[in-house]
Design a protein that fits this description.
With 119 residues, the chain is an all-beta fold. 0% of the residues lie in helices and 51% in strands. It contains no helices and eleven strands. The protein has strands spanning 2-6, 9-12, 17-24, 32-38, 45-50, 56-58, 66-71, 76-81, 90-97, 108-109, 113-118. The strands form two sheets. Strands 2, 4, 5, 6, 9, 10 and 11 form a seven-stranded mixed sheet that branches. It is globular.
Length: 119
């Protein structure tokens, strides 16, 4: 079971980025997939997740700006980030779990992708 993030980069405040979490060794429709981020000097925090049912959950800090979606045919989960703010700057990780939701103790993690938002 592996997940790999891509799509990070440098963007100006107010801009958009779409991160991709590509899965291998399992199908994304039977795992919960979550997105986390870690800014320098801060603890890793949850951004949101998509359950096997397709239901999505978001942290208050990104609600109405970020959207998680799943493409079963491509075995991929996306994190669409709009109206980006400098405080969104972090390394973003995706994680997978056979449980209902993804937590910081979930077993499968990618290497992360850097997102930098300039003011």
């Amino acid at each position: 079971v592996q997940v790999a993030e891509s799509g990070g980069g440098l963007v100006q405040a107010g801009g958009s980025l779409r991160l991709t979490c590509a899965a291998s060794g399992f199908t994304v429709d039977i795992f919960a997939i979550g997105w986390f981020r870690q800014a320098p000097g801060k603890e890793r925090e949850g951004v949101g997740c998509i359950k096997t049912t397709g239901t999505t959950l978001y942290a208050d800090s990104v609600k109405d700006r970020f959207t998680i979606s799943r493409d079963n045919a491509k075995n991929t989960v996306y994190l669409q980030m709009n109206s980006l703010k400098p405080e969104d700057t972090a390394v973003y990780y995706c994680a997978a779990d056979l449980g209902v939701v993804v937590t910081s103790t979930s077993p499968y993690w990618g290497q992360g992708t850097q997102v930098t938002v300039s003011s």
